[in-house]
Design a protein that fits this description.
Layout: H1 8-16, E1 22-24, E2 27-33, H2 37-54, E3 59-63, E4 66-71, H3 81-93
Antiparallel strand pairs: 1-2, 2-4, 3-4
Helix pairs in contact: 2-3
């Protein structure tokens, strides 16, 4: 089953249900700040398990206590339902 890129109006509607996420460079984006590196790395480990189970992996970076995540579906050429599903699962961890 092919995942389809969402139209802009659907993305905007879904963003209203994910208030911590924004659009950045045509991708869903969220920045997390933790108490220290260990907390940030632990969070990344939990996200990695979710992403692997979904076979949908984030673009992310980590510097000390900060984790920045961008979500997009490369096969669809933009944001898809998979990105919002993963965003909601990530939100449940934070």
């Amino acid at each position: 089953m092919r995942t389809e890129k969402l139209p802009a109006d659907v993305i905007e509607k879904n963003l209203q249900q994910c208030p911590h996420w924004a659009l950045d460079q045509g991708k869903l984006y969220r920045r997390f700040v933790f108490d220290d590196f260990v907390a940030a790395f632990g969070f990344m480990s939990r996200v990695a398990l979710l992403a692997e189970a979904m076979n949908h992996h984030p673009e992310w970076s980590n510097v000390w206590n900060r984790v920045e995540i961008h979500l997009t579906t490369h096969d669809a050429g933009g944001i898809s339902d998979l990105d919002f599903q993963l965003a909601r699962k990530i939100d449940a961890l934070s």
